[in-house]
Amino acid sequence: MPKGTERRLGRWLERESVFRLVPLVPVQGLILALLAVPFVLTLYISLLRWRLTRGFWTAAPFGGLSNFADALGDEALLNSIVRTFVFAGTAVALEVLIGFGLALLTYRSFRGRRVYLTIFLVPMMIIPVVIGYNFSMLLIDTGPLNSVLGLLSGQDIRIRWLSEYRAAQVAVVLADVWQWTPLTFLILVSGLTGLPPDPVRAAQVMGATRWQVFRYVQLPLLKPVIVIALVVRTMEALKIFDLPMLLTQGGPGNATETLSIFLWRNAWVFNKVSYAAAASLLVLVLFSAVIFASIWLLRRERAALEADGPRRRAEWSRR
Amino acid sequence: MAEAVAKTGEYDIFNHQMYMLPDAAEAGVVIPLDEYAARGKPSFDDIPKTLRNEMYYTGKLYSFFTDGDQTILALRQDLIELAPARKAFKAKFGWEPGCPDTWKRWEELASFFNGKKGQNFYGITLDKDLYGAQEYRSREFGYRWWQGRYASKNKLMLDRNMKPLISGPEGIEATREMVALTTYMPKDIFGWGTPQNYPFFAQGNSFSIVAFPSIVGYAQKAQGTLVSGKVRSCVVPGTIVGGKLIRRSVQPAGTNYMVSRYSKHPEAAYWFLQWFTGPEVGNRAIADPDGFWDPFRPSHLRDPRIAAKYGEQFLHVTLENAKIAVPMLPLQGNREYLDALDVNLQEAFHGRITPEEAMKRTARAWDKTTDDIGRTRQMEAWRHVVEAGSYFDAEGY
After folding, report:
1. What is the pLDDT of residue A24?
2. Which of A140, A141, A271 sits opposite B23 (nearest CB)?
3. Regarding predicted confidence, which is higher, A155 or B362?
4. CATH code assigned at B7
5. With pLDDT > 70 as the criterion, what percentage of chain B qualifies?
6. Is B129 near chain A, with CB under 8 Å?
7. Whole-angstrom distance between the N-terminal and C-terminal Cα of chain A?
8. Nearest CA in chain B to A256
9. Domains of chain A by range and CATH?
């Protein structure tokens, strides 16, 4: 390289506006390679009429937007989306509620607390295949769950957990709640433990009951953490595949066929790769909307908390 | 199928269930073996015709198989032999209880040989509920059994233009029969695969079951079985069509082997498969006490090791079932066709739609799949299936 050019390049790189961007180049390049390339490929494949049984994708005929049109009119896809949202909504609500309850019971220091914390966290660490197998054994017609329910109710309970439409949906929710409540518990117990003690003490000094302390001090302070638990779990729950697959294979009928199972079936069982690509892109748009809404919610909570802090401190100092 | 795209050449042989062949062949991931077979002269002569056809696609040999998985009916012989029960049954239905000729007669047996815990059943007190029948009804399974029933109506599933025939009276009847028989089954049957169905039968909870042939050996030898020595094997029931009894078992799974197009040693792979699945090694595998492959060649009857493992009564019956076995729709995209059938059958089993509606919906879905894959190509493949006699002389082409 000529010396003049080298000097000019050196000076250009030394400029702060340039130098601070240089370390980002490899990272951005990596992200581009890892995300953009597969995305563009998926987009292109979605425009083809490619089945795995028709050779390589480069030889597949161009289909334009026909896969998207088919997907939008596919009742099975739309039903699986609705089913997935209902499933995620129910499961996550239960996980946050139960996780919150457990967190409230264990966030203070007491003898044996570590043992309880460990026990509560165990389900999250078990691999889903084992959970699926265990639940399939627990939930059989004459299995332990029905026996326990029978003992409690004094009647012969025969709920067909894995073979009745509604019961199978409930069974999948139950298994998911069992496995993932520990995560919401972990997030919420950390949040509760990390709350500043002063506002709580101040409220207690001022004669607030335990309920008032919880309702008016702890809960508002914990809102951003609750939102994080909700967002993290919802994003995961919307992708559920393993438990319904292991417990019911998406059945009976299509009762537990979630979106992931639907897409998997179309791509890998029916070999309709282009169709599955189109359907997954439509779903990506839908899920992006949910994620953006969640991020907006998180930001709003954070802003509200930041705005609320000085106001409350001012209120307390006036009192 | 990932290898169709990846083309790694890491695999010489693919092992899958029989119905996978059309998709694998169309994807070009497996190669025809006719050229090698012309030199190797594998021993196919004593393989029943329809099972042999399952090794071919559009007239070309693509695969070998080692497992005669054709369905079988197993009954509780000890219950049938109860003298008062026999008498009462004959008085009610007009025939001696035993292996039923028709699906209708199996339903009659199921309706009679069942009872509640504590009930006195013709001289014996039932120590648990006794169910009349078991047959696979869950997602991924029920539709396989349906195909045997439907085939016994002597109707093809598609005509020469790939127009579905399953929404006709035969399809509706097959579905109705399956729905009706469910009355005599444990309520949990809709969620059961083999790990649930087999122990349930072996523990004496039901009178009869149509399952894979291994159910008989399982009931005989499984740990904790209560029905050892009490089970009788039967040829699957059929339907009387035009005064003639037509029985059809179905090959709901089976194990086949195909040679990868991307194998670096395709000929060696071929020779291995011919050796591995031939009468010498294949028979040894079937006779292995810990193996799970089932007999299908008539020559298996003459193999003392196989006869010792299975017993002659079972062996005769399962070989009869092998002769009347039909494949699971051997066409490209069969998983998609059959998934539509599966989902709609499930809806009918649960009473959410009528059998008529289930078949109508399935036929609509099949038409769409055919158009999507390419009607002309499918018509050609279907012609090969029908002309090879894979569905015997079924009507409708």
Report:
1. 87
2. A271
3. B362
4. 3.40.190.10
5. 100
6. no
7. 73
8. B139
9. 1-36 (no CATH), 54-308 (1.10.3720.10)
Same domain, B245 and B299: no
| B167 and B229 part of one domain | yes
User: Quick one: how far is CA B193 from the chain centroid?
Assistant: 14
- Average of per-residue pLDDT across A12-24: 86
Helix (H, G, I), strand (E, B) or coil at B267: helix
From its phi and psi, is residue B392 left (phi > 0), alpha (psi between -120 and 50) or beta? Answer: left
Chain B residues with CB-CB distance to A268 below 8 A = 1
A170 contact B CB<8A? no
- Least Cα separation, residue B347 to chain A (angstroms): 6
- Tens-place pLDDT, residues B193-242: 898 899 999 999 999 999 999 999 899 888 899 999 999 999 999 999 99
Do both B149 and B290 map to the same domain? no
Domain count, chain B: 2
Do B80 and B218 share a domain, yes or no? yes
Contact check, Cβ <8 Å, B187/A160: yes
- Top residue of A137, A245, A271 to mutate, by most chain B CBs within 10 Å, is A271
- If pLDDT is split at 50, 70 and 90, which confidence band does A318 have? low
Tell me: pLDDT of A304 over 80.
no
CA nearest B20 in A: which residue? A269
User: Is the domain of B144 the same as that of B262?
Assistant: no
Give, in order, the Cα–Cα distances in Å from A172 to each of A134, A160, A176, A319.
Answer: 12, 13, 6, 51
Do B6 and B31 have their domain in common? yes
CA distance to A160, A173, B120, B126, B128, per residue, from B115 (Å)? 20, 35, 8, 7, 9
Give the residue-averaged pLDDT of B113-119: 96
Residue written as token pair 């809404």: A293
Alpha carbons A311 and A299: distance in angstroms, whole number: 19
The answer to whether residue B338 sits within a structural domain is no
Contact B343/A at CB under 8 A: yes
Under 8 Å CB pairs connecting chains A and B tally to 93
Which chain A residue lies closest to B28 (C-alpha atoms)? A55
A150 has a chain B CB within 8 A of its CB: no
Mean pLDDT taken over chain B = 94
B249-250 vs B325-326, strand pairing mode: parallel
| A158 touches B at CB < 8 Å | yes
Domain extent, residue B232, equals: 72-250
Shortest Cα–Cα distance, A133 to chain B (Å): 11
Please state the φ and ψ torsions of residue B130, each to the nearest 5 degrees. Answer: -115, 120
